[in-house]
């Protein structure tokens, strides 16, 4: 059995926000074969602490908003120790179109494909 890649999805950066496994985006990640580092949160889309992301040490980081680069993520305090940052596994809206994973539409199939490509 191959272990699932642990994934952190950031939907907003100031404040830092992510998704729970039960959210629409979290369910898509499950379908794509990834493991969300935030299985539960107080709400489906919720603020998270940077320290929680560092402690979870995700294999992959996916950013669903523009105006941020992978370099900016790597330069966050303490984030240089995260596996995804060390292995250049940070994906931006260039690799995952937010319109394909943030909205329920027939095009979610394309979004799942893009998520699967990040998990390779």
Tell me the structural class.
alpha/beta
Q: End-to-end distance, in Å?
A: 15 Å
Choose one word for the global shape: globular
Residue runs with pLDDT of under 50 for 5 or more positions: none
Largest sheet: 6 strands, mixed
Taken in chain order, the helices and strands follow as EEHEEHEHHEHH
Q: What share of residues are in beta strands?
A: 15-25%
Q: Please count the beta strands (DSSP E, at least 2 residues each).
A: 6
- Helix run count: 6
Radius of gyration: 13 Å
Set out the fold topology:
Elements: E1 6-13, E2 16-19, H1 24-32, E3 35-36, E4 45-47, H2 50-56, E5 60-63, H3 70-74, H4 83-86, E6 90-91, H5 98-101, H6 108-119
Describe this structure in words.
There is one protein chain. The protein contains six helices and six strands. It is of the alpha/beta class. Strands 1, 2, 3, 4, 5 and 6 form a six-stranded mixed beta sheet that branches. Helix 1 crosses helix 6 (108-119). The longest helix is centred in the last third of the chain and has 12 residues, at 108-119. The radius of gyration is 13 Å and the shape is globular. The mean pLDDT is 96.
């Amino acid at each position: 059995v191959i272990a699932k890649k642990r994934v952190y999805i950031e939907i907003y950066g100031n404040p830092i926000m992510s998704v729970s496994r039960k959210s629409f985006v979290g369910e898509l990640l499950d379908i794509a074969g990834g493991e969300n580092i935030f299985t539960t949160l107080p709400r489906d889309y919720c603020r998270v602490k940077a320290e929680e992301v560092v402690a979870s040490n995700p294999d992959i980081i996916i950013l669903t908003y523009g105006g941020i680069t992978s370099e900016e993520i790597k330069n966050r305090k303490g984030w240089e120790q995260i596996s995804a940052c060390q292995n250049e596994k940070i994906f931006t809206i260039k690799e995952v179109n937010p319109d394909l994973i943030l909205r329920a539409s027939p095009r979610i199939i394309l979004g799942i494909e893009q998520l699967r490509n990040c998990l390779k």
